[in-house]
Write a structure and sequence with these properties.
By secondary structure, the protein is of the alpha+beta class. It has helices spanning 20-36, 50-60, 71-78, 90-95, 110-119, 151-156, 185-193, and strands at residues 39-46, 64-67, 101-106, 122-124, 136-138, 141-142, 161-164, 167-170, 174-177, 199-210, 214-217. The protein contains seven helices and eleven strands. The strands form three sheets. Strands 1, 2, 3, 4, 10 and 11 form a six-stranded antiparallel β-sheet that branches. Helix 1 crosses helix 3. Keywords: Cytoplasm, Nucleus, Ribosome biogenesis.
């Protein structure tokens, strides 16, 4: 019997994702940027969206570079301790690389970046785990914005729907979410289907380092800069989904 062309074995050894070479490239990129750019910022992301970070990368690529990678890899690039850092006090930036944060290397002044960050935001759809900012209620009646083929999906999300003469209809009042309560995955999907964005994508500049002024804290935190290097806590691996936001070096 002839062998099927589909019967092929694929070696999983060739599917290594984000291995040592990838990590080393991020480290090298960060060290290159430390030399190239006069100003560095650690930014914190609220309501993370990769597509919006990519848009910012394109907008700022002329004179800046965004890097958004695993925190421990970025820490190595900057230097985790005084002994490792290539510039004085860069290890203080490393200590603030926790949670959903990234690095901004730029030729723009500190004043320009802080003013921009204060005023920049983008409306986005909320995800599960987000605390609802308002109560959303759907009254009983037709939902003409949805096609009849959507009815089973809406019902699976918990909406009390049925088809009446081919029109999706809610047969009783339904509260999608309540202000101050955490959204479930189903509630977040319903809000997106309804076209009701509730979240804001923002960047907060936690701290900065400039070749002229050195380190400066912009958001108060509990980090002890006088803590011995050996006592620096190791961050748990909770940032596997983070991506490096590459930028042009030109």
């Amino acid at each position: 019997m002839p062998r099927s062309k589909r019967d092929k074995k694929v070696s999983l050894t060739k599917t290594d994702r984000k291995g040592l070479a990838w990590k080393q490239r991020i480290i090298d990129d960060i060290r290159f940027c430390v030399e190239k750019y006069p100003n560095i910022f650690v930014f914190q992301v609220q309501n993370m969206r990769n597509n919006l970070l990519k848009d910012l990368r394109q907008e700022w690529k002329k004179n800046s570079r965004f890097i958004f990678g695993k925190n421990r890899i970025m820490q190595i690039g900057l230097g985790r301790t005084k002994a490792e850092e290539t510039e004085t006090d860069l290890h203080k930036l490393s200590k603030r690389l926790t949670g959903q944060v990234g690095l901004l290397f730029t030729e723009k002044t500190k004043k320009e970046v802080l003013e921009w960050a204060e005023n920049y935001w983008a409306v986005e759809y909320a995800r599960s785990g987000f605390v609802a900012t308002k109560t959303v209620t759907l009254p009983a009646g037709p939902l003409e914005e949805f096609t009849h083929s959507m009815e089973p999906h809406l019902r699976s999300l918990g909406l009390p729907t049925k088809l009446e003469k081919g029109v999706v209809t809610i047969y009783s009042d339904y509260t999608v979410c309540e202000e101050g309560k955490v959204l479930t995955p189903e509630q977040a999907r319903i809000l997106k289907l309804l076209g009701d964005p509730m979240a804001k994508f923002r960047l907060t500049m936690k701290c900065s380092w400039t070749k002229k002024d050195g380190f400066e804290l912009h958001v108060e935190d509990s980090v002890d800069d006088n803590q011995s290097d050996s006592a620096m806590e190791e961050e748990p691996e909770d940032d596997d989904e983070k991506e490096e936001m590459e930028g042009d070096d030109e």
